[in-house]
Amino acid sequence: MEDIFEYDGKSLLHIRKWSDMAPALQVGFTSRNGGVSKAQFESNNFGLHVSDKYEDVLTNRLNLASSLHIPVENWIAAEQVHQGAVHVVDKEDAGKGSTSLDTALKGIDGLITNEKGLLCTAFFADCVPIFFFDSKTGYVGIAHAGWKGTVARIAEVMTSKLVDLGVDLKSLFVAVGPCISKDNYEVDSYVKERIPVEFQDKVLTPVGNEHYLLDLKQLNVEILVQSGVFRNNIDVSKYCTFRDEYLFFSHRRDNGNTGRMLGYIGYSK
Predict the structure, then answer these.
(1) Which of 18, 27, 228, 232 is nearest to 135 (CA)?
(2) pLDDT, tens only, 223-248
(3) Domain boundaries defined on the chain
(4) CA 20 to 30 Å from 31, out of 9, 56, 61, 151?
(5) In degrees rounded to 5, what are phi and psi of residue 75?
(6) What is the pLDDT of residue 1?
(7) 85 Cβ partners below 8 Å, 6+ apart?
């Protein structure tokens, strides 16, 4: 399957299209393979909050840090509270959330930086990872967008912040990463009512009993385009975390008892 995220056959899915434009850029999404975690977390779990052994999660993180040439002390993670707040990070934030949940950036779901040597990270097991890369200024970012963060328009918040920082939308590239697909994401009327009316026909399919299949990928694309991002600059992964069990953990498929993938973006130098 051709995809913006290219699987290396071992443990990582890379956005090679972007790293070809900026060779020092490290950007991708981990698979569930190639790590040391056991049982339901087998094997490449990056989440510290899912009752996996701390030592195993840390080993998985350290191994990735080594391959990316960005030490874990320079990783930055947000608390991820399913809202729309973003934070521009710098060297003073290095290490926050990298080895402890307690130090993660509170109340934040999106990270942005243009400082070399820092890695913006976020954790996923069905929610939408949204990656941002400006080829001119070098600004990069990652957002965590479940349905709540999506309707909180975190994609728009990220875009607006990047524009405030001097990014020209003509050179802004966005990738909507592996997440749960429409075919496997059934929601109720409570969720439906919180989706902007102008998008409902494009992203919802009724399945009866006031339940709907929701296309979170397309909803984020609609919000991005409405925010000024050029549609030709948006790539959408075809991978589904629920369906592609050989590659991904899935909160919904695994009834909440599962690991987390890591989305990451930053410059190694």
Answers:
(1) 18
(2) 999 999 999 999 999 999 999 999 99
(3) 6-179+231-267
(4) 151
(5) -80, 155
(6) 84
(7) 107, 108, 109, 110, 157
Topology annotation, domain 6-179+231-267? CNF1/YfiH-like putative cysteine hydrolases (3.60.140)
Q: Which amino acid is at 117?
A: G
Nearest to 263 by CA among 150, 72, 129: 129
One-letter amino acid identity for 108? I
- Examine the pLDDT at 137 and tell me if it is beyond 90: yes
The CB-side HSE value for 242 (13 A sphere, CA atoms) comes to: 15
Taking a C-beta distance cutoff of 8 angstroms, is the pair 7, 32 a contact?
no
Is the N-terminal amide bond of 43 cis, ω within 30° of 0? yes
pLDDT digits (tens, 9 = 90+) for 30-84: 999 999 999 999 999 999 999 999 999 999 999 999 999 999 999 999 999 999 9
Q: Which residues are registered as beta bridge partners of 264? A: 28, 121
